[in-house]
Automatic annotation (TrEMBL):
It catalyses: L-rhamnofuranose + NADP(+) = L-rhamnono-1,4-lactone + NADPH + H(+); L-rhamnofuranose + NAD(+) = L-rhamnono-1,4-lactone + NADH + H(+). This is L-rhamnose 1-dehydrogenase (NAD(P)(+)). InterPro entries: KR_dom (IPR057326), NAD(P)-bd_dom_sf (IPR036291), SDR_fam (IPR002347). The keyword Oxidoreductase applies. Pfam families: adh_short_C2. Its EC number is 1.1.1.378.
Amino acid sequence: MKLLEGKTVLVTGASTGIGRAAAIGAAQHGADVVINYHSRDEDAEACIAAIEATGQRGLAVKGDVAEPDTAKDFVAKAVEAFGKVDVMVNNAGICPFHAFLDMPVETFERTMRVNMHGAYFMVQAAANQMVAQGHGGAIVAVSSISALVGGEYQTHYTPTKAGVHSLMQSTAIALGKYKIRCNSLLPGTILTEINKDDLADDAKRTYMESRVPLGRLGAPEDMVGPIVFLASDMAAYVTGAALLVDGGMFVNLQ
């Protein structure tokens, strides 16, 4: 059963990791998919090839989500290519691990601009297009378990993920009258480019795995089902919600 048949889905930060898995998963469920990516041209091309291998159409649009105009350009090119926007998956994010006391201003501000500002302007651009179309839509933002718990080397990152979660709560209220649903996903530790260096240490990885009741760290593909569900009509009465996708890590932290 293809849950996104006939829909146009936009995914930010989709050349690798969760975004890539979400983009390909959306195509497997019948959607045409437009991806945003920052710099990895070959990875973006490979993602589009995987989308097209499902029989769906794909388009890659390069751009830095930290720049507000990137969002407008991304949505405009999606509409030009496929005629509409039904779903926005806001996924782009960075987490350059660093201690708090000597956090470089540039690292803090770049993390804020990509994760929080980028989410705001992408969601706003997609919502404006959905309102103009007049038939509603779905926005899914990838937040993090870090919206709920702290991290010693993530003092710049965790506030952005709490902000993304809060943004979905507020936009759910602001956009409900337009039949636009807004929900967030809170992944636990998912093996992606963001944390591959941090988890290259075998002892740390084993420790992290020991905290997960399901006994393993997550893979990007573990996010596909929850994203597709929230994007689909199966979640027609779900808005302003947050879904933990963490193998049970959060409830096992005490």
